[in-house]
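[Q] Does anyone have a clean structure-token version of this?
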Amino acid sequence: MSKTKLEYIWLDGYVPTQSLRSKTKIVRNFDGKLESCPVWCFDGSSTEQAPGGSSDCLLKPVAIFPDPARKNAFLVMNEVLSPDGTPHPSNGRALIDDDDNDFWFGFEQEYFLWDTETDKPLGFPASGYPAPQGPYYCSVGAKNAFGREIVEEHLDLCIEAGINVEGINSEVATGQWEFQIFSKGAKAAGDQVWVARYLLERTAEKYGIAINWHCKPLGATDWNGSGMHANFSNGLLREAGSKEIYDRVCQSFAPVVKEHIAVYGADNHLRLTGKHETQSIDRFSYGVSDRGASIRIPIATVENGWKGWLEDRRPNSAADPYKVAARIIKTVKTVPEYATSNGH
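[A] Here you go.
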């Protein structure tokens, strides 16, 4: 009789930023399939998701990945359900309206490796600041790149787990890094970002290093903040062949700036200042190859005859990719050409 470890992963109910939670279930003679993962439960009163007098919440498995860091183990991403089986209010995945996987997402996840002893980014001196930003972006060498062993181990784990990670690089600030995740299907993209975040947190544990997901952990300084740029497309954008259609899609975002900012991560006003390759939080703009715009139209899209994707640069590093994707999809679906392109 074989025994397998299933690491059930979910999001708690903390506001304004949810955290990852997980616990291990031992099962016998497991066949590695998602449908063989049973619904489980947890104490929601300990995660801000239920009162103590009625504390059970349900875990519904929605994605499974091999766990390369443990023997005989899998990583199981879950949606949180209320006891009656309906989506819990904290369940952002349930908001996604993309059952046909028409929407594709690529998330650029930035973060800081954080020294728990100095309470500063890895590579910062105990007092003061390192040399100004500039040499750290895509850097190499011990003077400029910090924590590479953690980042490389995380990359290998993601690849071995079957997560569609598309690349990594060191970022503009000291101790700041990025990984990129792509998937055809908004729910799958969110699943993979969250499991990749989980693997990064767990890997950094071994080194005594924390992961700081906050969008501006160094406060009102000249150091760059952290984003989670959302690259997205659907059938309409991939086959548009028309600048006018791209204009209409981009313009559909203008009336709902507040609705997008509401789910694009806490404290985004500290990051979206109009500086450091951002647009101001209360303004909306778009443009070809413009990294200071709210939405960038990649030059590759234009050169491909206006067939490609868009990049919303506003989501921050601590945003929930499920909620970001759900809001983008809702907005794009208001464009009249969307209904025509999907046969509605």
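[Q] Thanks! Anything notable?
[A] The mean pLDDT is 95.
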